[in-house]
Design a protein that fits this description.
heterodimer; A: 180 residues; alpha+beta; Nuclear Transport Factor 2, Chain: A; six-stranded mixed beta sheet; 4 helices; 37% helix; B: 360 residues; 2 domains; 27% helix; 34% strand
Chain lengths: 180, 360
């Protein structure tokens, strides 16, 4: 009888623990729905920082690039692992390799979204000198990203590159000194 | 009662098991040091200090040398291997060194934890800034100046390969090697660095020391400064950059001769812009806790990249402006904001205008 009561007590305790655990999980899910932890930000920064290497080295026959994306990930209109790997292989086909540097990214900003995270960076695509030739700026622009946390970690869900384009100067662009 | 205790013990043990499993999921695999967000941040800060220490040559080169272990090594294609504090300090000396000298722009910092520390890589491009800039009058239309060439990329570009060690004083370079950019196979190089989960830590949200900065503070200040170009050049992809730009600052903030929201918004609106425009590239962001708030400095290069039509013709972009910013950040109820910001144009060689510790 004493044991039965003890078991009932234990069952109640166990249930309380289970409910507590469940609400903790719910709370964590809610947190990851609208906010990012410091670890999330660092992991997404590290994902973004690998982008240049993946494009420029052509590592793993383009699959190093493809594997930065989720299974259904997109870069512009290119979707899926095979297509992304092919894109990486064919980008700068004649120029690439383990020591080649072309895609310089900075101004990395990351924000939480209900589904995961979004972010942007600037790109400066450079033709870096070989054999004493001068280096030059080939193009530049902005990436617009969505990130998703997969079982393997954070990945690009979608990524769009927008080449830089200046706007139209407003008629008031030249302001009188008094307004400064 | 005995069985209750036994059951409680089992519940307790399985809870431990769950905790251990979570640890494995959220940390690095066995044999690899589990790095926290603060470890990554401090390794990034080490690399960001590198450019300032090398270009300024501050403390006669010893600020540079002290980023390395006592027996640390720097290696490149022109100097070979340089080992030890005094030898490393000589690398950061030269006629061009000075508090406003800005050359080494470092980006794409990747880090992989190892058994006893971490390894990492970054891209480097060296940029030279013209020492004499054509006079443009007291109040130029900024749109008319786009494309004016005032600097150029150096031949030096490539990547660094680092080994980092955590000492009681913080993370240091055990070794750092510069590899010039080169197309084609390179058997000396291995593939990509691996990504591992970052280990959660109490300092993610609570500073380790009173008056210090948590990992989230660093991350938010990094993002504030990384937002600068996005806000100023394209208003985060909108058609009016003024509010976005002024929104980076506290309500009483000062940048140059502009103070307060209205003046800062007007300053932003004077600058060339467009929803797809990019021009202000910032990097090497050094952040330090200071008097309950934070201070920072970072490199700027304003680049006029060729637009699609010009690119199609093979026209290269040009460097418009280079230098560094020195900032004070303040934590407001809306998050971290810039309280004061000053721009120092790049000047090679010694100058008497600032101290060797620009951010203070």
């Amino acid at each position: 009888m004493r044991n039965v009561r003890a078991n009932v007590t234990l069952a109640v305790v166990a249930m309380a623990i289970t409910i507590g655990a469940a609400s903790l999980v719910r709370a964590q899910q809610k947190v990851t729905g609208g906010t990012l932890t410091a670890a999330d930000y660092i992991e997404i920064q590290q994902l973004v920082a690998r982008y240049g290497y993946a494009v420029d080295t052509h590592a793993d026959n383009g699959y190093a690039y493809a594997d930065l994306f989720s299974a259904d990930g997109t870069f512009g209109n290119t979707k899926g692992r095979e297509a992304l790997a092919e894109l990486a292989r064919s980008t700068q086909k004649e120029r690439g390799g383990p020591s080649y540097t072309r895609h310089y990214l900075t101004n990395v900003i990351i924000y939480p979204t209900p589904e995961g995270a979004r972010g942007n960076q600037y790109l400066m695509a450079l033709d870096v000198s070989e054999a004493g030739k001068s280096s030059s700026i080939v193009h530049g622009g902005r990436y617009d990203d969505l990130y998703v946390k997969t079982a393997a970690g954070w990945r690009f869900k979608s990524r769009v590159y927008q080449q830089a384009k200046i706007g139209v100067p407003p008629p008031t662009a030249k302001l009188p000194p008094s307004s400064r | 009662m005995k069985s209750l205790l036994a059951s409680a013990l089992i519940v307790g043990l399985s809870a431990l098991g769950v905790a251990k499993a979570q640890q494995t999921r959220t940390g690095a695999p066995a044999g690899v040091m589990a790095l926290t967000a603060m470890d990554y941040i401090q390794i990034k800060q080490l690399v960001n200090r590198y450019a300032f220490a090398l270009d300024t040559g501050s403390r006669n080169g010893y600020d540079y040398a002290d980023l390395f272990l006592r027996d640390g090594v720097f290696e490149n294609n022109t100097r070979g291997r340089v080992r030890g504090r005094d030898q490393l300090a000589t690398l950061a000396r030269g006629d061009e060194k000075g508090p406003l000298n800005v050359v080494h722009y470092i980006m794409n910092h990747i880090i992989e934890p190892t058994a006893d520390g971490a390894v990492g890589r970054q891209y480097l491009i060296n940029i030279s800034h013209d020492q004499s800039i054509p006079s443009v009058g007291p109040n130029p239309n900024q749109w008319d100046l786009v494309g004016q060439k005032r600097g150029s990329l150096d031949t030096d570009g490539g990547h660094y390969e680092d080994v980092y060690t955590k000492t009681p004083e913080g993370w240091r370079f055990r070794s750092r090697k510069f590899v010039p950019s080169k197309s084609g196979p390179d058997p000396a190089r291995t593939g990509m660095l691996k990504m591992y989960p970052v280990k959660p830590d109490p300092t993610d949200t609570v500073p380790a020391v009173p008056g210090g900065l948590s990992a989230m503070d660093y991350i938010e200040i990094e993002r504030l400064v990384a937002s600068y170009g996005h806000a100023l050049d394209n208003g985060y992809g909108t058609t009016d950059n003024g509010e976005a730009y002024a929104g980076l600052y506290t309500s009483d903030a000062t940048f140059g001769q502009s103070t307060g929201y209205a003046q800062l918004a007007a300053l932003g609106r004077e600058q060339p812009q467009g929803s797809l425009y990019v021009r202000h590239y910032l990097t090497n962001h050094v952040i330090e806790p200071f008097a309950g708030q934070a201070i920072g400095k970072q490199y700027l290069v304003v680049v006029d990249v060729p637009e699609p039509e010009a690119r199609a013709k093979g026209t290269p972009g040009s460097v418009f402006l280079g230098g560094h910013y020195e900032d004070v950040y303040q934590k407001t109820s809306d998050g971290w904001r810039i309280r004061t910001r000053r721009l120092f144009r790049a000047v090679a060689g010694p100058t008497g205008s600032t101290s060797t510790q620009p951010a203070r």
